[in-house]
């Protein structure tokens, strides 16, 4: 009888330990890699006060560490290729790549590196990070919404996060001042992001 009780206690303790270990494993951050086929980064800047010019960057890569259970973003970095700027106008795009704006020859990369994260709701938060542009780094807050998290229904079928994000910056803070004084090009730039990020395979 004592042996039976001891075995039952041992089994219960073992099961509890395994459950705690499993819970602990689930609470660990996972690495998510941006799906380049499902990433959009758009910007808007006013042109002579008439209408905003809209554009995007076509080449981007990045990854981040996120604990979905605890809603904690622990690290992350996104890199945009400045030469990939696109506004559907070749002459304007060439101008954006030169020294007046992005200076792509000298500064090929625009980077955003996560430095902090604050949860603001069930599926929203504010990501703080260092935005490096034209060789200068400034802190930026980005409002983020988690739209969906689930196994992908088609294609790769891996676990995926779907996110929307936006922020507004003044480009002059990074030394990009062309056209501001004579009001040809606005200083304020609105940035909007839509992305899917795939959890790395092999994560437990």
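Sequence proposed for the structure above (204 residues):
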């Amino acid at each position: 009888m004592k042996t039976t009780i001891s075995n039952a206690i041992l089994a219960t303790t073992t099961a509890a330990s395994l459950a705690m270990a499993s819970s602990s494993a689930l609470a660990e951050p996972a690495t998510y890699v941006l799906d380049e086929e499902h990433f959009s980064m758009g910007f808007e800047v006013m042109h002579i006060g008439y209408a905003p010019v809209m554009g995007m960057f076509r080449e981007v890569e990045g990854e981040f560490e996120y604990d979905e259970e605890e809603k904690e973003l622990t690290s992350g970095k996104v890199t945009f290729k400045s030469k990939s700027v696109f506004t559907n106008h070749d002459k304007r795009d060439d101008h954006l790549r030169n020294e007046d704006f992005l200076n792509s020859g000298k500064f090929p990369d625009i980077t955003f590196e996560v430095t902090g994260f604050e949860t603001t709701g069930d599926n929203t938060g504010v990501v703080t990070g260092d935005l490096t542009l034209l060789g200068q780094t400034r802190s930026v807050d980005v409002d983020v919404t988690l739209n969906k998290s689930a196994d992908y229904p088609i294609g790769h079928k891996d676990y995926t996060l779907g996110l929307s994000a936006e922020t507004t910056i003044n480009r002059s803070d990074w030394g990009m001042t062309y056209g501001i004084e004579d009001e040809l090009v606005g200083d304020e730039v609105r940035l909007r992001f839509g992305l899917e990020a795939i959890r790395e395979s092999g994560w437990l």
